[in-house]
Amino acid sequence: MPDFTDLTAMTIAAARARLAKKDFTALELTDAHLAAMDKARDLNAFIVTTPDVARERAKAADVRIQSGKAGALEGIPLGIKDLFCTEGVQTTAASHILEGFKPQYESTVSQKLRDAGSVMLGKLNLDEFAMGSSNMTSYFGPVKSPWKAKGRADDLVPGGSSGGSATAVSACLAMGATGTDTGGSIRQPASFCGIVGVKPTYGRCSRWGIVAFASSLDQAGPMTRTVRDAAIMLKVMCGHDPKDSTSAPLAVPDFEAALSKGVKGLRIGIPNEYRPDGLNAEVAALWDKGIQWLKDAGATTVEISLPHTKSALPTYYIVAPAEASSNLARYDGVRFGQRVEGKTLDEMYAKTRAAGFGTEVKRRILIGTYVLSAGYYDAYYLKAQKVRALIARDFTEAFEKCDAILTPTAPSAAFGLHDKQDDPVAMYLNDVFTVPASLAGIPGASVPADLNSEGLPLGLQVLTKRWDEETMFSVCQVLEDAAKFPFLKGAP
Amino acid sequence: MSYVIKGETGQWEVVIGLEVHAQVISKSKLFSGAPTEFGAGPNTQVSFIDAGMPGMLPVINAHAVEQAVRTGLGLKAKINQRSVFARKNYFYADLPQGYQISQYDMPIVGEGTLILDMPDGTTRAIGIERLHLEQDAGKSVHDMHPSKTFIDLNRAGVPLMEIVSKPDLRSPEEAGLYLKKLRSILRYLGTCDGNMEEGSMRCDANVSVRPVGSTELRTRCEIKNVNSVRFVMQAIEHEAMRHVDVYESGGSINQETRLYDSNKGETRPMRSKEFAHDYRYFPDPDLQPLEFDDAFVAAIKSKLPELPDDKQARFIKDYGLSAYDAGVLVAEQENALYFEEVAKGRDAKLANNWVSSNLFGVLNARGVAIGDSPVSAKNLGRLLDLIADNTLSSRMAKEVFEIMAETGNAPDAIVEERGMKQITDTGAIDAAIDQIIAQNADKVEQYRSGKEQLMGWFVGQVMKATQGKANPGVCGELLRKKLKS
Amino acid sequence: MSLDKATVRKIATLARIDVPETDLESTVQQLSGILKWIEQLAEVNTDGVAPMSGGTDLKLPWRPDAVTDGGKVDAVLANAPDAQDGFFGVPKVVE
Ligand SMILES: [Mg+2]
Ligand SMILES: [Zn+2]
After folding, report:
1. Domains of chain B
2. ipTM value of the model?
3. What values do phi and psi take at A296, rounded to 5?
4. Which of A223, A291, B458, C27 has the fewest Cβ atoms nearer than 10 Å?
5. By CA distance, what is B32's nearest residue in C?
6. Global pTM?
């Protein structure tokens, strides 16, 4: 009789091996997670749970395992961010406007995970339309982090927008989860919740079937408890998709094989612009620790400059809302989703969208509409596109001097769910270290590195050049090995 | 010949630019694999992409790109090897994504030219501003329910070429000629079927007026979606008159979008377009720039058909036709092909007469396309041969032609069956002439004393006597000989 | 550039989002705050820089002209708030 608590605390790699050895069944593994999810309802990580779907898929996985036809993720229970369209299962993007929407199609990424034998446990909560860094903008209520600060009882945010994913993985409600990252939405919550989050190169994972936020930035990726698990999951998630014009027609590397390569001889770039005056001292100290770990493992470090770093956030807050204002025009109450009737078509639109979207989403749509409007396009949108080109160029030039870049993932640890957050700009600053890589389209990962003095996780971010996730994984594995981060919540 | 409107205060000139939306002939949509056929049940030709479902992404149809380039080459226009798809953002019930994927500041085709053949034999070169690719919207049905509009997205995503002229047109007639010429070129190229009733070619007309002699451009109004060449001409005429009336009564014209009501013969502002638009164009982040190389363009160029202007020039040169006659023949490729088959090795001017007057007359009267002509080119050619070898007089040929048009039979068979062979046998004609001369001594006398007009009367008598079968040439010759002796 | 109420009203109309008169002032404040912050970009020298408009520099893929989709009216209408006789229904539009 397996120990169910033990089952939920395993890594994907371990579960994969033990399922193959038939130590337990996929159904048992799934049931263990469904039970854990039930107990952790208070965290609000899931918008909907799909126990029937999960058990059905777990049973099918067991049949395939029995017949020696196991896929790469056969029987592994995963959570799917509710931004991925899932056939016949409500997909909301955490927005009221999509409440009740049941796609008649499956996103490419979730289909690939399904085809590899994984088991969907449910749809994970997120910031509405993935717009946020705290998971407080969800129509279905905020997600709580499983972490608490030392000596404090109040709830913390899991980060966002993939906050449900981060909480579920961190609290061992799922062995892994899908996330999406537009400006840091995988990496920042991974850092806040003490897990691994990988945003691959733009174009690695198909965007087909993922509710679009900002099309030129959105990228799916895995959120897991270990670097190896992220490599296993990413290999399944990515690959060329002819249905997405921006999907790269490249072969998928063996990310898992890169884990053992080490960093000997690698040049690690340390950008001085990421150490602004007033950088949180614990974050700065952790960064130094990370630098030392890599040096100890045989890497050399090199000071680099990314001169346009300071402009990345304002650039992002023009580009992303502009694209969002257009991407979210389809939520009009005509073909799907919620509708508020009106006497005229325009009245119906305005009422539907006013009632269907939350405050932050409306704010971004209005900003995006403004920066694209006649007379302002050149000053805002075109300008931002030019600065974006400079930011991308900064990285290209930096990667002539180094193989990977190491930075902190976020400027702070998680903050309180009830801390006052009424200044949108202050909230946007959470993404200061993650946004530049998003704009440049390069891969980035966050690895949990340590706890701060309050006992909260802090992550380190590894960036590499486009299509070089392998080097990124090598560096991440070395960091993980050195950090020995043992502090998972929900684990026994 | 210039078109002017005589107002109370003076003469006015009309300035017209046309925007034509031409549906690209393709099997599937511009960005999805749904079919484009006309007339299917509502929403049966719709993919999730066309319906603007969450997470759906566009992938460009290669054939639509080729068709746009082919059309650009046909319009002798600049082909842009790098163009950009942009989103045109606006809300409308039949626009599922909330934006139309179109091209804005970087279209696939730049400036070109279209030549108009004016009825007086002169030509006018009309500038083409640009051609861009874009997706069509769906269809709103307003008359099926008392309080609702119904939306059918079958057309949503259908590939269109928007072809924009420069404001070079100066009369409703020129606008009509422009549309006909453009349609002719598109059909030659096989890039658009030009069918205005089914909406595969639609026209928006930008109209303004100015006092004759002025070069200013006054406020224009855009008349949307006029669905026939005739209505475009009428709409322009009415709109131009309206502008003149407004200006002459001291008013001013608002830049606005209007609809043409062909029943009332007037234009009126479009209510749904009252709201000032701000389309917020920006490059579509789902689609990288559209790029191709010289070889791609060259391959398309190498397969271009002979286009109407070139064909017309050749018909003038090779067949000795007038520009006007050649223009009529080349307007439709099928007509030109038909003509060439008839004219090959025969008298081309005669062939033109038979095709342009007799055949087209029959086809127009019956509303039949040349492809369904009861008279095949081969048979018409044979008929011309029978005229040439004197088997038929031209009068008899007309009779035979009518039977051909009726039955679809070959001329030889008709002639054979009905014994319609012209009499060229001088013996038979001789006898008839001798008898007429014998019976009409007075007329013979008058002819011989110089009243040569009587020759016609004599020929008539001979024809009567031979039931019209006598060859009039042979007949005249023999008569002249006998009357003189 | 700080916004005024009229501009926000105009943007809201363009975006088809009903912003009640009572929320207008606070919306003006928030949007102005964000705009003021993003305007720091004006200081960046971008002379001669080509704008980066997409996330990738890969070539645009083309698909062959083949019918691979359509014929699923039920699936297309499955989530419609108002569907009738194969159509989507909306309030009557007067052209
Ligand atoms: Mg237009
Ligand atoms: Zn157009």
Report:
1. 4-300 (no CATH), 308-418 (no CATH), 426-484 (1.10.10.410)
2. 0.97
3. -60, -30
4. A291
5. C69
6. 0.92
